[in-house]
Amino acid sequence: MSRTGLFLVLEGGEGVGKTTHALLLAQWFASLGLAVTRAREPGGTRLGEAIREVLLHHREMEIPPESELLLMLAARAAFVREVVRPALARGEIMLADRFEYSTFVYQGLGRGLGLDRARDLNAFATGGIRPDLVVVLDLPPSGAAARRRSAGRADDRIEGEGEAFLTRIHAGYRVLAEGDPDAVVVDAEGTPEEVQARIRSVLRVRFPEPFGSTEG
Ligand code: Z5A
């Protein structure tokens, strides 16, 4: 399959606004007449959704870090094959809510399995496909937790890991993005409209075609 579309990924800790901005971006792309496929990870396929259920919603189950890593990647292999590659081959914008950065940060750094190992295994799962741009939404864990609380969200198995873990995740994202020319950190403080405007500005500069001359 040839690779023609645009692969965009929204990343960041829980509650930073990824779902909100994926939705707003998808609406913007549609208003520009651009075809978009939007999906979340882990998930997006039948296998991925089944793995998601096991990983996030069974606190009674012992899941060793190594198993957690391999399950995330088992879901990703199906996601790439069934969702990402076909969308790009159709020439669409593939907009993913989390992708490989989540594995690098949560399993590689957060669980201490190592960045190199997470990268190597991830490359096997993805066949080497990489996003054209990773947008890391940056918000301190306390701010994200406040948003989640005010939305009445309960913690899942990974979210219940505590402050030190969340702080490692927050710092990990920044470090990864700062060393990656295909990633950008966007300040996620402020109203959804303000944050969305920052993301759109980044896209206009990064991708003059198709976003350079757009408004809104
Ligand atoms: N995980 C992993 O460990 N390794 C991997 O490789 C992958 C994933 C792929 C998936 O969680 C979990 O899997 C995640 C990492 C792990 N676990 N943790 N922890 P998920 O998909 O269920 O949830 P999440 O990614 O953590 O996202 P979330 O909680 O749904 O948050 P969000 O999508 O970033 O935020 P949101 O839902 O758009 O916004 C949260 C609330 O804030 C909501 O009520 C909004 O209306 C509100 N909001 C949004 N923006 C604003 C602004 N600007 N101001 C005020 N309020 C706002």
In short:
This protein has 216 residues and is of the alpha/beta class. It has a single domain, classed as 3-Layer(aba) Sandwich (Rossmann fold), CATH 3.40.50. The protein has helices at 18-31, 46-57, 65-89, 100-110, 115-126, 141-150, 163-178, 192-206, 208-211, and strands at residues 6-11, 36-40, 93-97, 133-138, 183-187.
Structure description:
The chain is an alpha/beta fold. The chain has one domain: Rossmann fold (3-Layer(aba) Sandwich), CATH 3.40.50.300. The chain is built from 9 helices and 5 strands; from the N terminus they run E-H-E-H-H-E-H-H-E-H-H-E-H-H. It has a 5-stranded parallel β-sheet with strand order 2-3-1-4-5, with helices on both faces. The N and C termini lie far apart (33 Å). The model has no long low-confidence stretch (mean pLDDT 95). The site of ligand Z5A has 26 residues, from helix 1, helix 4, helix 6 and helix 8.
> Could you tell me the strand content as a percent range?
5-15%
* CATH architecture descriptor name: 3-Layer(aba) Sandwich
CATH superfamily: P-loop containing nucleotide triphosphate hydrolases
| Major sheet characteristics | 5 strands, parallel
Write the H/E string, N to C: EHEHHEHHEHHEHH
Keywords:
Rossmann fold; globular; 216 residues; binds ligand Z5A; 55% helix; five-stranded parallel β-sheet; 5 strands; alpha/beta
List strands and helices in order, with pairings.
Blueprint: E1 6-11, H1 18-31, E2 36-40, H2 46-57, H3 65-89, E3 93-97, H4 100-110, H5 115-126, E4 133-138, H6 141-150, H7 163-178, E5 183-187, H8 192-206, H9 208-211
Parallel strand pairs: 1-3, 1-4, 2-3, 4-5
Helix pairs in contact: 1-8, 2-3, 3-4, 3-5, 4-5, 4-7
Bound molecules: ligand Z5A.
Ligand Z5A binds at residues 14-20, 40-42, 56, 72, 98, 102-103, 106-107, 147-148, 151, 158-159, 190-192, 195.
